[in-house]
Amino acid sequence: MKKVLFAVYTSPVGSIWINEAFRSAFGMYGEDLEPAVLFVEEAVLAVRSSCKPELIGCLPLAMTFKYIEKYQTPVYAVKEDLDKFNIKEDEIAPQWNLKIVSKDELPEFVHSFDKVVIF
Amino acid sequence: MHVTIQVNVPPYTNEDMDTAIHLAEALLKRGHKVSIFLFADSVLAANKLVKPMKVDRNIPSKLRELSEKGVEVHICGLCAQYRGIGEDMKIEGSDFSGVPEMAALIYNSDRYINLLP
Amino acid sequence: MALIIVKKSPSEKISEFLLNLALPQDKVLFVQDGVIFAACKNVKNLVKEGVELFALKEDFIARGFDEKDSEVTLVDYDGWAELIEKEEKVIS
After folding, report:
1. Which domains occur in chain B, in start order?
2. What domains can be seen in chain A, in order of their start residue?
3. How far is CA C29 from CA A95, B73, C90, in A?
4. Which of A86, A94, B24, B54 would you call most buried, defined as having the most Cβ atoms within 10 angstroms of its Cβ?
5. What is the pLDDT of residues C54-89, one digit of tens each?
6. pTM of the full predicted structure?
């Protein structure tokens, strides 16, 4: 089994990369791969339940939720980036089942994966 | 060694396809097996109907030449459908793939080089 | 250890994120607009001690820099391929 990380740094809504990261991650289960998704920088805006790309006619982020639940795909966000946007715990959509990593832990965390794909 | 290069952004606007092509050539010269995975807007690079100015490079032709030298060119099929790239438009030697093929490449490649968007 | 590829310019936050990931003995390669880092006097201070820095010569020269302007080791595409062979992991 190999571990693969899809890290997203691009903001939600403005581009498709968060959806593409999850589409890629869910495809990994066809092989002996264990995917995870990490939100860094502006990508953390995705975790607020009020973040809805569908409001401007784009694909919803919520379409990922049933697969996150089905596969139990781990989703991480960087603490300092959440703090930067003042994202409170009660604002985070529970379906992300969000895990937090601090900036200090990031180098070791990212190195713990066999393959890393950043969007 | 098997090295896969994933590209995500469109050709001509960005340098990424050029980077991928030059790197693939260098890896081939050193005896490696090379795959290129075209994801999202980068699938436009496999459209053989492009008509760049004469002074400019023809990126799809360069990709075809690489495939003739043994490089596997994978095109994300859903990404291609989204952008209207059909079977009759794609360069010879390339294949419509998908996320399952991406997974296989991630699993089987010794190195996976993603050119982030 | 890891080869970390930085392809965005110093003005982009993702570049800083990638440089912060580098652990001692990792190698960082600047390509595309990332090569602008190679001309920054303080570039070595942006990574932890023991991180080796490289820049892609073709991209550096194409942006009007002279080889002697580089604060880091310049490699060509063959050199990049060699870095890929040597480092067991790629972060990009």
Report:
1. 2-115 (3.40.1260.10)
2. 2-118 (3.40.1260.10)
3. 37, 25, 11
4. B24
5. 999 999 999 999 999 999 999 999 999 999 999 999
6. 0.97
